[in-house]
Predict the structure.
Amino acid sequence: MFERAARPFVVFVERFYPDAFVFAILLTLVTFAMTVGLADETPAAAVEIWGLGLTGLLSFIAQIALTLICAHAVAHTDLVGAALDRLARLPRSAGQGYFLVAAVAGAGSLIAWSLGLVVGGLIALRVARVARQRGVDMHYPLLVASAYGGFVVWHMGYSSSSALFVATPGHTLEAVTGLIPVTETIFAPWNLALAAVTVLAVAGLCAAMGPARCRTYAGQADGPGGARPAAVAETPGQWLESRRSLSLVMGGVVLWFLWLWFAERGFSLTLDIVNWSFLGLGLVLARSPVHYVGLIADASRTVGPIVLQYPFYAGIMALMTGTALVSILSGFFVSVSTPETLSFWAFLAAGALNFFIPSGGGQWAVQGPIFIDAARELGVAYPHIVMAVAYGDQWTNLIQPFWTIPLLAVAGLNMRAIMGYCFVVFAATGVLFGGTLLLLGA
């Protein structure tokens, strides 16, 4: 039944959905039109705001590129590669494979969004490769879509931007909301229950969508990685670069720094700390410094789409935040809200704005104050608004190409291959998230 339900979405997306870069161009043009037509900016002013904003994600581009490269390198070390292969051998059927990939990606996303994206993509690769070796037909695009489906819970977990923002002393809304502890947002019983239900529901749905005709894994996305043979040391320089002790010492220093970080701050994850974790582990697990350089070189081919597309999204975000567009769009949703439905409308507004501001922290910064003020006037619990915005942000990620870029770079697929299945997961999770918020408001 679910396979038949998914088929029209898959056919439509494969036929009409543009490439992710073309989608970014079209979204840029739509945002320009909205800026001129709704926010009353002149075309010249809109172009200037957009142009100045192109550099807004440069630090993030470097961070996410390093995440992909270092995580890919770790996954192709001998030890981690063997461990991933053992995990990938657990599924005995195609349905079990889709379920495992979605569940692993969901669990990783609840720890850190970056971890969920990378681990989901890598386990999808491994499961597909093992299935090919066993002669089990698994639809590779659905495996990758399962990994991306698991990502839908990231904002309910430890790296939730909006929840961490309102729990931080000195945040910009503290005079209105006070400090909102994470025990009332991401660790609230209703959010934990919804996160667990969502992961299981997505995993089950992905398992049920398995098509009769499979596009199996072809191996094109899996570089030689850890299989590269060790070079024979013929000169003193080659002897030195093949010494594992050098990479062990350097990796040990990185891990020592991480131990000091967590000892002082607790389990405080940032994208930089995730990167240094992958870097330290990669150095420790590599056979030698030159072997690690080879692993990094293999992984570096995944970063091209990021470097190309993310500046365009930075420009779109600048148009949204540098004009009155966010206030106009959010104001509409507030105007139709009641105390019982404000959280639901905040969820829908966040989902809509996420197309133009695909950054959890950035979106909360511009949308949060509008809905928090409405919550104060209508007497709605602030934690419900915080998580409603979080749910909307993570929900439309499923059909917004911004976050598919690193996953698809790892998997070696284009966006059209997975987006039809993501639409089905999008519809199902929309019912879960929206229904929960309506129940909370009742």
Observations:
- Residues 223-227 have pLDDT under 50 and may be disordered.
- The chain has two domains: 2-225+300-441, 229-299.
